[in-house]
Design goal:
about 170 residues; 5 helices; mainly alpha; rod-shaped; Four Helix Bundle (Hemerythrin (Met), subunit A)
């Protein structure tokens, strides 16, 4: 009997050691998977924050440039042609500076964002470039370019709204 007791004790002890080893291994695996899941969630959240910030900067900057159009509308109504030309040239410089800033911001979006958002930012850039050319033409004395500026401004606004919608979709997917 003592031999069987010894065998039972050895078997029970071996089973306990094996169970402990399996449990420890399972716990380590679960801890590793949990750490990887948390790290992936943190990376995703950081990426979302970076993208959201880049998108908002671009949207806010583009919206701020609409003031130039309002000032141009007022300037075009002036009776004094010299004063009108000076004002339009000043607005062209502001538009050029705004366009340069837009290019910098859109490059950040291109680096951080998915291709669909980048494509919408590029479409917006093209519309803004056309409006900037119209402002340059106005600053050169071609007041007939005001009508074309209004058309290109509407196109830029529509491109901005498309960009905003694509941004919303992209952020919701994250």
């Amino acid at each position: 009997m003592s031999d069987s007791t010894l065998w039972v004790a050895a078997f029970t002890g071996g089973t306990a050691i094996l169970a402990s080893w399996v449990t420890g291994r399972g716990n380590r695996q679960a801890a590793r998977e949990q750490a990887e899941t948390v790290a992936a969630a943190q990376r995703r959240d950081r990426l979302r924050d970076v993208r959201r910030s880049a998108y908002l900067d671009l949207i806010q900057h583009t919206q701020s440039q609409r003031e130039i159009l309002w000032r141009i509308r007022d300037i075009v109504q002036r009776d004094d042609s010299e004063q009108r030309l000076v004002g339009l040239r000043e607005q062209f410089r502001a538009a050029q500076h705004g366009y340069d800033t837009y290019l910098k911001l859109s490059r950040i979006v291109a680096v951080e964002g998915p291709p669909q958002v980048t494509a919408r930012a590029e479409a917006l850039r093209q519309a803004l470039a056309l409006a900037r050319k119209d402002i340059k033409s106005l600053a050169g004395g071609n007041l007939a370019a005001m009508e074309q500026l209004e058309v290109h401004n509407r196109e830029a606004h529509e491109a901005l709204m498309s960009f905003v919608e694509e941004v919303r979709i992209a952020l919701d997917r994250m």
